Amino acid sequence: MVAVRAGLRLALYTEHGFANGSRREGGAVSARMRRVNESVRAVVAEAIGGLNDPRIGIVTVTGVSVSPDLHEARVYVSVFGSEKKRRATMSALEAARGVVQARLARELQMKRTPQLGFEYDPTAEHGVRIGKLIDDLAPGPAPEDAAGASSAE
After folding, report:
1. What is the pLDDT along the chain (153 residues), one digit of tens a residue?
2. Which domains does the chain have, with CATH numbers?
């Protein structure tokens, strides 16, 4: 845990958010940090697309969370494919972290280049699963509706 001093307030900041349980990403993020997050996301997404590692599958960069001091950046990625393909892709991204970070340093003129860390984002997978569940629960056309439509013609 790290203490962050902002003016007269002192907040305890942990790796995943503030000590009171609120997450930095879900809270009030300044306009500057939103621009930094989006710029880093765009460069990282482009850099990942240019990697020539056969272990990397279809990857979508869903978001980036850069720490306020610009020392660290969590890159959230979604991977299309099986669990085995996801593990191989995450391993390849960690191996290529230095290449992606060097490109980030070249393309963005920032005071510091954040240390990148990749994290799997399961939200797309959960969305597909919930969509399938809803489709399974949705009733099909009722038999009397189908008979009523044909007799009305």
Report:
1. 333 333 333 333 333 443 333 344 456 789 989 999 999 999 999 999 999 999 998 999 999 999 999 999 999 999 988 899 999 999 999 999 999 999 999 999 888 999 999 999 988 888 888 988 898 887 766 556 555 555 554
2. 29-137 (3.30.300.20)
Strands 115-120 and 72-80: parallel
Q: Rounded to 10 degrees, what is the CA torsion of 13, 16, 21, 26?
A: 100
Residue 71 contacts residue 11 (beta carbons within 8 Å)? no
What whole-number distance in Å separates Cα of residue 142 and Cα of residue 153? 18
Contacts of 118 (CB under 8 A, 6+ apart): 75, 77, 90, 93, 94, 97
DSSP 116: E
**What single DSSP character describes residue 147?**
H
In the block, tokens 């399938």 appear at 132
Whether residue 104 contacts residue 116, with contact meaning beta carbons closer than 8 Å, is answered with yes
